[in-house]
Amino acid sequence: MKKSIFYSIIFASLFLVGCSEDFLDPERNTNVLTDADFNEYSEINPDLIVGTLDGIASFMIQPQGITTQHYDFGQKGVDIWLDILVGDMALATSGYGWYNGVANLVSTVDETQDENKIIWNYYYKIISLSNSVIMNSGGNDAEPETPELGRILAQAKASRAYAYFYLTQTYQREFDLTQEILPYYDGETTETAKVPASQIYDLILRDLTHSLELLDGYTRSQKNQIDQSIVHGLLAYTYAAMGNYPDAKLHADAIIDSGKFPLTTTGQLAYPGVGSGFNNINTPSWMWGFDLTEDLGHQLVDWWGQIDYFTYSYAAAGDSKAIDDGLFAQIPANDIRKTQFGTGNAPLMPINKFFDPARTEMEQYIITTDLIFMRVEEFYLLSAEAAAKTGNEGDAKATLIELLTIRMGGVAEAEAYVNPLSGASLIDAIYLQTRIEMWGEGKAYLAMKRNKKTATRGTNHVFRAGSSFPYNANEMSFLIPRSEIDNNPSIDSQN
């Protein structure tokens, strides 16, 4: 796709704004389309609805979609913040200061900081775009007459559910269905005051359940498109966050049992293996991601521009992101994942997991390495966690052994690690393996929240080295931004 076409989709899609006054009164800005305009134009050109749906996927990776800050680039920007919060990603050096606020746990207790605004507006923008597609596809209760219309409605509903799910995880300190947490917009109902978490979770589950039905038989053409596997994944995460582990396991196992996504091979896990590196959308274990091409023109303001030593990046220039040395020490010596992290000029940086294949320091300027949102290993770990927490330790161990066999060099090595475990030690081991396996992918934070763990930092953090913070500490979640409180009269404080 050409860069001009790509960002034309973005521009056309972003006529809907995020939340509060802008969301409620779009007509006050004559440069944006109103819903009435959209209804009229979409009747003339139905492709506008499809373009808006495509724009949601594009917005997930758009540089500086909310602000001009260099850590503002959609979902992958959020993933970095979440990994820093859980402590597994250390800001090991700080030359430019982009991540100082989160690494020092200042931004999460100050509602005026940009990080709060970026995350809030990013997800509510996706909700707004999704609502527009849903309303122009017949509404929340629509039953589309054709598979194509069903696919459009399903993907929009899944996108809305994805955004609301991440809002629940980042803006609620711990799961409580009775707590009022977020404004609620479903395209038909507008509640600018915070509603109970139960109302948000009900919408997420309704959206995903309906989406799963509508996507039956759909085969996507690109991995940035949502299909049934992605919906199963979102359902697994949602049920797990709610403590409903039987249903979480049901959906995690649906992904595994489909056979569509083989486990990442030993060679793919770390350089110099064949096909190594988490940089290619065509890796069979990748379920959801985005194919970055030269025509898109992504440069410094990108996930790779903050993480990769071999990209023209902050990571190589003085803002290095490394694995927490305490976590690294817990990776067994025979585990291939221990070799994902560097030494020498790049101590504990992920130079053998996330890298430009040319492997020349600061070489990749126009970014063509791809972005990952979801892969199959997440659901082996979530299935094992759910099994262990529901008393099915045999199933939990078998699933974990299957995953670790590839990583530890063989079945005997994996069994030696797993078989002695039981009860709390088994659950703790699955949590540890989730942190190791998903390093740099933003998922350990979700595991910390649902497992009610404490984040303890090692010695290689610029800020708060050696400190510990429980999952529900104020520092571990974001705040409703001051801009929202100022512009939304229905919200007057964080409480």
TrEMBL record:
Record keywords, A-Z: Cell outer membrane, Membrane, Signal
- The answer, when asked if Signal is one of the entry's keywords, is yes
Q: Pfam families per the record? A: SusD-like_3 (PF14322), SusD_RagB (PF07980)
- Quote the cellular component terms of the Gene Ontology held in the record: cell outer membrane
In this chain the SusD-like N-terminal domain maps to 104-229
Among its keywords, does the record have Oxidoreductase? no
Compartments where located: Cell outer membrane
Domain RagB/SusD, chain residue ranges per copy: 348-484
Q: What is its main location?
A: membrane
Q: Could you name the domain of life of the organism this protein comes from?
A: Bacteria
Q: Which family does it belong to?
A: Belongs to the SusD family.
Name this polypeptide is given: RagB/SusD family nutrient uptake outer membrane protein
Q: Could you tell me which species this protein originates from?
A: Gelidibacter gilvus
